[in-house]
Specification:
Layout: H1 3-6, E1 9-13, H2 19-25, E2 33-37, E3 46-50, E4 55-61, E5 65-71, E6 77-84, H3 92-105, E7 109-114, E8 124-125, H4 134-144, E9 147-148, E10 151-152, E11 158-159, E12 169-170, E13 173-177, H5 179-184, E14 188-192, E15 203-207, H6 227-237, H7 245-271, H8 275-287, H9 293-320, H10 324-327, H11 333-341, E16 351-352, E17 358-359, H12 362-376, E18 397-404, H13 414-423, H14 428-439, E19 446-447, E20 450-451, H15 468-488, E21 506-509, E22 512-519, H16 521-538, E23 548-551, H17 557-567, E24 570-571, E25 577-578, E26 581-582, H18 589-593, H19 595-607, H20 614-625, H21 630-633, H22 640-655, H23 669-672, H24 686-703, H25 708-716, H26 734-749, E27 750-753, H27 801-807, H28 810-817, E28 829-832, H29 842-851, H30 856-859, H31 865-872, H32 878-888, H33 895-900, H34 919-925, H35 927-934, H36 942-945, H37 950-961, H38 968-990, H39 997-1017, E29 1032-1041, E30 1046-1054, E31 1061-1070, H40 1074-1091, E32 1096-1101, H41 1104-1110, H42 1121-1131, E33 1135-1142, E34 1145-1152
Parallel strand pairs: 6-7, 10-14, 23-24, 29-32, 32-33
Antiparallel strand pairs: 1-3, 2-3, 4-5, 5-6, 7-13, 8-12, 9-13, 11-12, 14-15, 16-17, 18-22, 18-23, 19-20, 21-22, 25-26, 27-28, 29-30, 30-31, 33-34
Helix pairs in contact: 3-4, 6-7, 8-9, 9-11, 13-14, 13-15, 15-16, 19-22, 20-22, 24-26, 24-29, 27-28, 34-35, 38-39, 40-42
Length: 1153
């Protein structure tokens, strides 16, 4: 659709007049095309007009819908559906259902009109935030995969026209389209006109393609595999340049970049990167084939076209920015269609200059924008002084000021930055390096993709590089110091939330600033003076249009008006959001947090039209959708209704197989939310994830009492602790209620490691085997000790074995005696018992909360947790992993599964039609499939293994085939066969294709080729050789029987050349963990070697955990932390090499201590 064609179609809605009256009033427009819908009573009425240059054919007409076929200048057919939403909410669902039926038959359709439905909260200004029908509308739109046509100018298209505080603005008139329609018209935009005579604004759908502009060219991946490129890179990299190493490197890169640019642009034009030409060219060559030279000419021409197509493929794949192979997706026309859809780009159509005139020409826009940024990066004199006023003292009132720095990064004065660095003690050499980095840059402004001439800035920091945020923080620290100094001199006074709590005068995060003060005219003057002084030396300018002040409720209105005018700021009743998080919440928490649902729904609308695989959708859910709201989940408890709504949107998105599919959940959501190591997919349940994040906040409060948040909570809620997570508090805030839930979870996950034992209660705390213990029930009438310190020998700090054996049953006593003891006095340690090193992690807290009260064993199938962890670590395509997961969890839409869910389908096998279509029958027991397995490379052992449950059979196959690296191709073959069976089954069932076992082999070979290609791209582990000079080899091992805590350790010393045994030892002991036994054996072996004078020791171990533990600087596991400390102390003067010996693999690592 071109702009002239769009302007030749006019739609008038809600005419509220009879047809004859409408036609008479519009007769002066001289449109030959006319279609109308009569009014119903005093409402409705649609009139569609089009010129003779437009080929428009109305197909169906109803009171709310007008469906037309449109033929553009290229004779391409598309469809336009004009929508008038029902005024009453109860009538709209029928309209959405009717649209769904039309859209299913004609997906290449544009929807435009008055939908009478607000979709997102920010599409409405004023009135109630409870919007009826919007949940159903969002679900309907996501189900159809409709994309919102971008709009410009005003956001709202309707108003109720009130002149008081009850005025309401809404966006009701809009346009949606499928991705197919947008592929044909990628530059379509919607322009909102001002609301003038009617209560609705006119909207214009038009093309915004504009003229082509000269864009900067960037070197891309598609050309780097060409031989000429490799040759001239190798030849020119050896050129010699005089200068510093950085200058030499920069010169080489500059020469190579210039040559690459010339070669790429030349070949891009020569080859004509055009995917559509490939098929037509090869077809024309094929039609000319005849006996003689033309046959060989066809092969030569075809190979040349394919080579160019491969470059085309690389060209477009780089633009797709999607890891298709990593996700296991198929390269098809979808890749190119997705990129063509991305032609829709942001464009600046017009700007208003300082004189109030609109600039629309491309040259004028470039000049205006370039002048703005050139002026922005030059230092100016800034804020004027302000006059002081006298005012009678009133009762103490408080105010919060939200400041917005105008282009904060771009206005930093360089001399101020360098002076701040010197004031903070940075050495002159470092300051000089920063000076060179900051002052040697140049800028170009991209205006609608076209660069303007470069210019040199005289102030400002670059945004996007890793150093600038830290430099800006140093600049803002000067303002922070000025405010603290003013508070110390009693020039201003911050606020305190409770008696004894620290006062807060300001909160800074990058360029987001909040000031808190006890308000008075003098305080206002001091704040203005400080801001003026800081602005004058730093270059910052306060944006008074975006900055505002909020006063406490006890401040009189006339006093508020005076103080606000003194501050030159507007007033607002709420602070809104700070760093994306709502600051002051009202009574209705759902209203404040429902914006999270809108965030998820908007992002899902962008992904719903993409044909992503299930593996790709998992990545989108975990790292895009959930990550987009994590900053709010970190701070507040989200209402459960909001969490359930987000969970529902994410799971429905994952189960949908296409844009027309509503999706059917074949596996319970409780399993999908489980971690992958427990048989789930790791899709986070928002409510549980929210509590895990709040538990992290509680952990920080406990372990970092010096933090401001911890000090505030300690003063306001002194009774809040791990052991008292829900103290009785008058008028608790929502923040306290949120953190309180974190403390409750923290109480469930905290355990104690006995040091001195004086702070650990024997019965009330968890300190043995992650559970609370009790005294021997046979002991009656004794005065039992209360703390663990009573169970220790006061001289040696070891366990008093006699006391422990007397007070506890044998099992409990063995568990206590198996706990390691320090060699000197140590403090008691509180640690997180669900992580190995005792440090809290959100992941472990999430698993703990998820499994709390959840019976995992009853909801999962046969594979064990260890098998699932092994399975997810296999190097097969993620797409095949998800397919296998669905197969093992009975999550494929087989006939038997669909029949159980009440669908009217034939449950018989799609291939043999003799038995129910179950996983075991379709993929193993069917006679047709058995012949496929029999003709494959698994024929030799297929009959013997094709027994028992299908899940056990499949899990056993995967375990056996992944036992060594040599079986990798067999594992790929096994998975490819299962996938191929599923593809062929779908072709037979839905496309009525005939049964062809050769198709399974063909598809399987294609999958194998793709698996091999992806594996070649994956890097291999570099294994370092052991050192050449070794004094002695130590071989040690340890084993532990968990039921009785009995352990045995042993070690031997060998000559590294002759392998002769040089000594050794063994010992029985009481230990609780296998790693504890391994580490104790290692400690005894090293002590023996060091006593004999060996300094170069090679350690052999079969424990991967031990090797990682001793060869890394990470925190040691809590149960063996004192053993590791002893090991480090004994081995610090020596050099070690650690070798992990396993069947079929080896890992070498070394540390220097």
């Amino acid at each position: 659709m071109k702009e002239v064609e769009i302007n030749d179609i006019v739609l008038v809605m809600e005419t509220m007049l009879p047809i004859d009256s409408v036609r008479h009033k519009l007769s002066s427009l001289l449109f030959p095309g006319f279609c109308r819908v009569d009014v119903v009573g005093l409402s409705g009425g649609l009139t569609l007009l089009w010129s003779s240059d437009v080929q428009l054919d109305p197909l169906s007409v109803s009171s709310h819908l007008l469906f037309c076929k449109y033929l553009n200048v290229s004779n391409e057919i598309s469809y336009i559906l004009i929508v008038y939403g029902a005024p009453h909410v109860s009538d709209r669902f029928a309209i959405w259902t009717e649209i769904s039926g039309i859209f299913t038959r004609y997906p290449n359709t544009l929807l435009i009109g008055d939908f009478n439905q607000v979709e997102f909260l920010d599409d409405k200004l004023g009135g109630s935030t409870h919007i009826q029908g919007r949940h159903e509308f969002i679900n309907w739109r996501l189900g159809l995969g409709l994309l919102d046509i971008p709009f410009s100018v005003s956001q709202y298209t309707w108003t109720n026209g009130h002149n008081d505080n009850s005025v309401i603005f809404e966006r009701l008139d809009k346009a949606y389209a499928s991705y197919i329609w947008l592929n044909h018209y990628p530059d379509i935009v919607l322009k909102h006109q001002p609301i003038i005579l009617s209560d609705h604004a006119a909207i214009i759908l038009c093309s915004d393609s504009g003229s082509r502009c000269k864009r900067p060219y960037r070197i891309e991946n598609w050309c780097l595999q060409a031989k000429p490129v490799v040759d001239f890179i190798n030849s020119h990299w050896g050129n010699h340049f005089l200068g510093s190493p950085m200058f030499v490197l920069s010169s080489k890169l500059s020469v190579i970049r210039r040559l690459l640019l010339s070669w790429c642009v030349h070949n891009l034009r020569l080859w004509g990167i055009n995917r559509r030409d490939l098929s037509s060219k090869v077809a024309s060559f094929a039609s000319a084939i005849s006996p003689g030279p033309s046959a060989s000419l066809f092969i030569t021409s075809r190979d040349e076209c394919v080579a160019r197509a491969q470059a085309t493929f690389m060209y477009w794949r780089q633009r797709s920015k999607v890891k298709w192979d990593a996700f296991g997706d198929c390269h098809s026309k979808l890749l190119f269609a997705s990129n063509q859809a991305r032609k829709r780009r942001n464009k600046i159509s017009s700007l208003q200059n300082s004189e109030g005139l609109h600039v629309v020409s491309p040259h004028g826009l470039r000049s205006l924008i370039s002048a703005y940024y050139m002026d922005l990066f030059h230092a100016h004199s800034l804020m004027p002084d302000h006059t002081s006023f006298d005012w009678d003292a009133l009762n103490a009132s408080f105010a919060a000021i939200k400041l917005d720095m105008n282009k904060a990064y771009d206005r930093v004065i360089w001399d101020f930055l360098f002076a701040a660095l010197q004031a903070f003690g940075f050495p002159p050499y470092w300051v000089n390096i920063i000076r060179q980095c900051v002052s040697t840059v140049s800028y170009q402004v991209l205006v609608n993709g076209e660069p303007t001439p470069s210019f040199q800035p005289r102030c400002g920091l670059r945004q996007g590089d890793p150093l600038s945020p830290y430099l800006f923080v140093i600049c803002m620290e000067i303002l922070s110091a000025m405010l603290r100094q003013a508070e110390e001199r009693h020039l201003i006074k911050g606020i305190s939330i409770f008696r004894g709590a620290p006062t807060i005068s300001h909160l800074f995060f990058a360029d987001g600033s909040l000031l808190f003060l006890q308000i008075s005219p003098d305080a206002c003057d001091q704040v203005l003076r400080l801001l003026s002084q800081f602005s004058g030396i730093s270059g910052q300018i306060i944006n008074y249009q975006k900055s505002f002040v909020k006063f406490s409720p006890n401040t009189p209105q006339d006093y508020r008006d005076y103080l606000a005018s003194s501050l030159r700021l507007g007033q607002r009743p709420s602070l809104g959001t700070y760093l994306g998080v709502p600051v002051d919440l009202g009574r209705s928490k759902c209203a404040f947090f429902y914006g999270l649902v809108d965030v998820i729904a908007r992002r899902l609308a962008n992904f719903s039209s993409c044909r992503l695989s299930s593996a790709a959708k998992l990545v989108v859910i975990k790292f895009v959708l959930v990550a987009s709201v994590t900053h709010v989940l970190d701070v507040f408890k989200i209402p459960q209704t909001i969490c359930d709504r987000i969970d529902n949107l994410c799971l429905r998105f994952w189960w949908r197989s296409s844009r027309l599919s509503r999706g059917m959940s074949l596996v319970p959501a409780s399993i999908l939310h489980l971690p992958r190591g427990l048989g789930g997919l790791g899709i986070r349940r928002i409510g549980t994830f929210n509590q895990a994040l709040l538990t992290k906040a509680a952990w920080r409060i406990v372990h970092h009492p010096q933090f401001l948040l911890a000090r505030l909570f300690k003063a306001r809620y002194p009774l809040l602790s791990i052991k008292n997570a829900t103290p009785r508090v008058n008028r608790p805030s929502w923040g306290f209620r949120s953190i309180s839930q974190g403390f409750q979870a923290l109480n469930d996950g905290i355990a104690r490691k006995p040091g001195a034992g004086s702070c650990i209660r024997i019965l009330d705390d968890v300190w043995v085997s992650d559970k609370r213990i009790s005294f021997n029930p046979l002991l009656v009438g004794l005065d039992f000790p209360t703390h663990v310190s009573s169970l220790l020998n006061p001289r040696s700090y070891a366990w008093d074995i006699g006391v422990v054996r007397h007070l506890f049953a044998d099992e409990t006593a063995n568990g206590i005696l198996a706990l390691e003891r320090p060699t000197s006095k140590e403090d008691d340690l509180a640690y997180w018992r669900f992580s190995l090193d005792g440090v809290f992690s959100v992941k472990s807290a999430y698993v703990m909360l998820l499994l709390k009260g959840h019976n995992v064993s009853s909801s999962l199938s046969v594979p064990s947790d260890a098998w699932w962890k092994h399975f997810w670590g296999l190097s097969i395509l993620p797409k095949f992993k998800i397919f296998l997961w669905k197969l093992l969890q009975n999550g494929l839409p087989l006939g038997s599964n669909l029949k159980l869910r009440g669908m009217g389908v034939d449950p018989a096998c799609s291939l043999c039609h003799l038995d129910l279509e179950t996983p075991s029958h379709l993929f193993r027991d069917c006679s047709l499939i058995s012949s496929v397995w029999g003709s494959s490379c698994f024929a030799s052992f297929f009959p013997s293994m094709a027994t028992g449950s299908f899940v056990s059979w499949c899990a056993c196959f995967v375990r056996n085939l992944s036992s060594s690296s040599a079986s990798t191709r067999l594992l790929d073959h096994f998975v490819s066969l299962l996938w191929s069976i599923w593809i062929v089954r779908n072709d037979v069932r839905f496309r009525n294709s005939p049964w062809d076992p050769g198709a399974i082999s063909f598809i399987s070979q294609g999958c194998l080729s793709r698996c091999s290609a992806v594996r070649l791209l994956q890097g291999s582990l570099t294994v370092l050789p052991p050192p050449s000079v070794i004094d002695v080899c130590l071989i040690f091992d340890g084993a532990c029987l968990h039921s009785s805590n009995q352990a045995g350790i042993g070690w031997i010393l060998r000559d590294p050349v002759s392998l002769a045994t040089m000594g050794g030892g063994a010992q029985a002991c009481v230990l609780g963990l296998a790693i504890q036994a391994e580490l104790t054996a290692c400690l005894f072996a090293v002590q023996m070697a060091t006593r004999r004078g060996f300094s170069r020791i090679l350690l052999y171990s079969d424990s991967a955990i031990l090797v990682r533990l001793l060869s890394s600087s990470c925190l040691p596991p809590v149960p063996v932390m004192w053993l590791v400390r002893t090991q480090d102390a004994s081995s610090s003067p020596f050099w070690f090499s650690l070798v992990l010996s396993l069947e079929g693999s080896s890992l070498y690592d070394s540390t220097s201590a």
